[in-house]
Structures are given as C-alpha cells and as structure tokens.
Write a structure and sequence with these properties.
The complex is a heterodimer of chains A (251) and B (246).
Chain A: E1 2-11, E2 14-24, E3 29-33, H1 40-47, E4 55-60, E5 63-64, H2 70-77, E6 80-83, H3 95-106, H4 111-124, H5 140-152, E7 158-162, H6 170-187, E8 190-195, H7 198-204, E9 207-212, E10 215-220, H8 222-225, H9 231-237, H10 241-250
Parallel strand pairs in A: 3-8, 3-9, 6-7, 7-8
Antiparallel strand pairs in A: 1-2, 1-4, 4-5, 9-10
Helix pairs in contact in A: 3-4, 3-5, 4-5, 5-6, 6-7
Chain B: H1 2-17, H2 24-39, H3 43-64, H4 73-113, H5 116-122, H6 127-165, H7 170-178, H8 184-209, H9 215-245
Helix pairs in contact in B: 1-6, 2-6, 3-4, 3-6, 4-6, 4-7, 4-8, 4-9, 6-7, 6-8, 8-9
The chains are: A alpha/beta (251), B mainly alpha (246).
Chain lengths: 251, 246
C-alpha cells in the first residue's frame, strides 16, 4: 500500500502539484488519469523519488519515503519496478541482458540461475526466442513487454507504469493492460498506472484518481466514473465521440 | 554567475561519480569495455594525426633554419621536443576531446532523454557512478598509452618526411632525437595527459548527464562538452606547464 499525504511540488516557482492526497491499495491496479500537462507524471515521479517533493509525505507501507536516508531508499528501490513511457530499455544491451540487469546488479545468483529467471520473466510476458535481439530490433509492444519483464525480475512489491500504452495500437495496448493487471494479481503488488487512455480506465481501472491542474479532482472506481457528477471529469472522459455514444446508450 | 553554477553542480556530480560501485565484477567489465570503446577505437585517428603532424613539424623546422651555421640534427631536436612536450599530449588530447568527448556526452545525453538514467535510479543504482566512473578510469588509464604511441609515430613521421624529401638526412635526424634528451619531458607529458583524460571524460559526461529535452538538446550538450573540455585542456596546459617546467 502506498499513501500520499498533502503533497506539493513546484518547478521554478510554478506549482505543479497542489495538496494531493491519495491511497493506492495493494493487489489493485490504481490509475492516475488526467490531461497532458495536468501533473500526473510529476506525481508518479514524485512518488518513486525521481522528484523531491516540497511538502507532504509519501508512505510505502506506512514508512515515510521523504524521511528515509540513502541506504533505506536504496533498499526500498529494490522492491520497485517501473515501466517507462518509452520503455527505457538499455540500447547497448540485448533483450536478455536488459531483463537480467537487476539480477546481475543485486543478486548473488549464478549466471545460469540469472538466465533461467530472465527466461521465466520473458515467458511470463509471452516473449520467446528474442533473447539475443536488441531493443531497436523489436516492436514497440515487444519493448514494453521486455520492460515489464525487467520490472518484475526482482519480484517487486510496487509497480509503477507511466503511460504504458503510449505509441501502441489499440490491440497491443489491451494486451499490455491485461498483462499489467494479471501480474498485479499474481504478485499481489501495489500497481500505479499513469494514463490518459480511456480504454485502460474501462479495462483495468480498479481505483481511479483524476488529476486536474495539479489537484486531485475526483477518485472512485471504473463503475463510478460514468456516473460522476463532475463537469471537468465528464469533459475529460467523454471527449471522444465513442465514449459520448456509450454514455448515451447507457442513459 | 552561470560559471559558478556549473562549477558547483560539476563538483556535486563528481562526488556522485566516485560513489562505491554496486558490484566490482560488473565495474571491472565496464572499464574493459570502455578501454576498448574510448581508447583502442581512437588508435587510428591518433596514428594518422601523429604521423602527419610529425612530418609537418620536421619539414617546417627544416625550412625555417636553413642556415649553414646551424647543424641539421637540430631539426631532430626541435621536432622531438615539440612532439614530446606539446603536440602528443595537448594536441592529441584536443582531438580526443572532440572524438571521445562528443561520444560520451551524446551517449549519456541520449540515455537521459530516453529515461534510461531514471530507470537506473529507480532500480537503486547510482547512475553517475555506474555510467561515468568506468569511462573516467578507462580514459585515465588508456590515454597515456595513446600519447606514448603518438610520440613514437610522430617522431617516425618526422624522420620519414625528412629522409624522403632529403631536407634532413636520416643519420642527422636520428642523432638529433637522441641529443640532449630529457626523460622528464615524457613524465611531464604523461602527467598532463592524465589530467586531460580526466577533464575529457568527466566534463563531457557532466554535460550529457544534465541534458534535458530531446535530440536537439543532446546535440547541444555534445557541442558544449567538446568546447568546455577543450577550453579546460588549454587552461590546465598553461597551469601544468608553469607548475612542472618553471
């Protein structure tokens, strides 16, 4: 479980996050949604510690992240897996080396054990016979799956995904969403996903937080979002004709 | 004010770079890879530049001291001292600042803008230490060898040019390069190169590490890396010459 309490974050005196509080449950896919530039990536990067917050607190299973020393943070980070918007795979390393990387750095496993674990993770994300290929030689969807395999290599307790579907076709996007959902349940992880893809919201949004202009505007489930009486949220959700039609047919 | 900002941020960066490596085995492999990437791969350009510069120095010296009172072997002395004292250490380092410096800045800058450095940080790895320290260690280790090779090739180039054109007879040139030889000149050059190697690798990595934006910014970081490391090489050249030869 991760809890953020009244966090504020500014860049060059421009306030990007204002008094944001939220609870992200264990074993659930928690979604942060909002328009581009609303502050959701800053929120996600603040939670993982890539940005230091100005005020407030971030609790990982009741342990305050901002108050941790470097050693404690380092230990916590071994329990975190993250899927970046552009996959962030190491260009100079093969698929297998990318997945093996956290194992090479943080475990005392033998090379064959590390290879077995990397192959297990790649198989789990439905990738086989790509071990020796380089990130530039595989598709965007496959890169995302390799990044998921790398993220779960050390059996993390927390999984963060920043726009996991960006740049993917709708079919591949659903595959990635389902994979994240299945892995969350399988490993009983606290998963936080940043997205503005409404298909993801409808597909895997067990808990949804809507960020607007750096503030938390709404929170609820995917079943509640259709009936939310909030104009700003409605304008965001029903921006596409498809979702407008769905709302009409529901009415 | 901007200069002080960069000096301060560079100092913090260097502190991060010299953090303890996560795994010594991985670090050692990285160093070997970087020796190949930054050092061995530069051997060709160093050899080409050295042979031509050695030849030109010899011929220019020969054309400028065409006087019966000055013996021909002084061309060898002048060429040797120019190559040992200045050319092989400073000019080769400036060339390496262009080749290796832009390579380091663009590699690390691309990793920054594609969030690969963030990925390392999330995993609990010190990205500055993991990415930059092997490059610094490799450069400081391999560049002195490159310069020693450059000295040999430069002098050979001078001997060839002098002999082929007939401006300096082979025996005169060989006598000249042995005449009043000061071994300290080699030590002086090696000390300079070690300092220059540190500047090239760390300053270039600094510009790459703090890149933000996209491909355009990576290009700008690469240019800044070459310009600022070249200027610092020139500044430290002056400083070290004063300290070591005065």
């Amino acid at each position: 479980m991760i809890e953020v309490k009244n966090i504020y974050k500014s860049f060059d005196e421009k306030e990007v996050l204002t008094d944001v509080s939220a609870l992200f449950e264990k074993g659930q896919t928690n979604l942060i949604i909002g328009q581009s530039g609303s502050g959701k990536t800053v929120l996600l990067k603040s939670i993982v510690g890539l940005h230091e917050i100005d005020q407030g607190d971030i609790l990982y299973d009741n342990k305050s992240f901002p108050n941790m020393n470097q050693k404690q943070r380092k230990a916590l980070r071994k329990e975190i897996g993250m899927l970046f918007q552009g996959s962030a795979l190491f260009d100079s390393a093969s698929v297998e080396e990318n997945v093996r990387f956290p194992l090479d750095m943080f475990t005392d496993m033998s090379l064959s054990e590390r290879r077995d674990r990397a192959n297990f993770c790649l198989k789990r994300v439905n990738l086989e016979n790509v071990n020796n290929l380089y990130p530039s030689e595989i598709s965007g969807g496959m890169q995302k799956r390799v990044a998921i395999a790398r993220a779960i290599a050390l059996n993390p307790k927390y999984l963060f995904c920043d726009e996991p579907n960006s740049g993917l076709d709708p079919k591949t996007a659903i595959v990635i969403d389902e994979l994240i959902f299945e892995i969350t349940k399988e490993y009983d992880m606290t998963t936080i996903i940043n997205t503005h893809d409404m298909n993801s919201v409808m597909g895997i949004g067990e808990k949804i937080i809507f960020i607007y202009q750096g503030k938390k505007f709404w929170e609820g489930t995917k079943d509640e979002i259709f009936h939310a009486q909030n104009e700003t949220l409605e304008n965001f959700i029903f921006a596409s004709k498809l979702f407008k039609q769905i709302r009409q047919s529901n009415k | 004010m901007r200069t002080f900002y960069h000096i301060g941020r560079y100092s913090i960066f260097i502190k991060k770079v010299f953090g303890r490596p996560e795994k010594h085995g991985v670090f050692f492999k990285q160093v070997v890879k970087e020796i190949d990437n930054l050092g061995i791969d530069s051997l060709g350009i160093v050899a080409i530049i050295s042979v031509f510069m050695g030849a030109v120095i010899t011929l220019q010296t020969a054309y400028n001291i065409e006087m019966p009172l000055i013996p021909k072997y002084t061309v060898g002395v002048a060429a040797r001292d120019s190559i040992l004292l200045e050319f092989s250490s400073t000019i080769v380092s400036l060339i390496l600042a262009g080749k290796v410096g832009s390579n380091i800045a663009s590699e690390i800058g691309t990793m920054r803008v594609t969030e690969q450095i963030d990925a390392l940080e999330i995993m609990g790895i010190n990205p500055a230490g993991y990415l930059v320290l092997p490059k610094v260690v490799a450069s400081v280790f391999i560049n002195p060898f490159l310069v020693l090779i450059s000295m040999g090739i430069g002098i050979t180039g001078g001997w060839l040019a002098g002999s082929v054109t007939g401006e300096v007879p082979s025996s005169e040139f060989i006598y000249g390069i042995q005449y009043a030889f000061t071994p300290f000149y080699i030590a002086y050059s090696i000390i300079k190169v070690i300092v220059f190697a540190f500047i090239i690798s760390s300053v270039s990595a600094y510009w790459g590490y703090y890149t933000s934006g996209g491909a355009l910014e990576v290009g700008k970081a690469s240019t800044k890396a070459v310009v600022s490391s070249s200027i610092q090489i020139l500044l430290f050249n002056l400083l070290l010459t004063q300290l070591l030869l005065a």
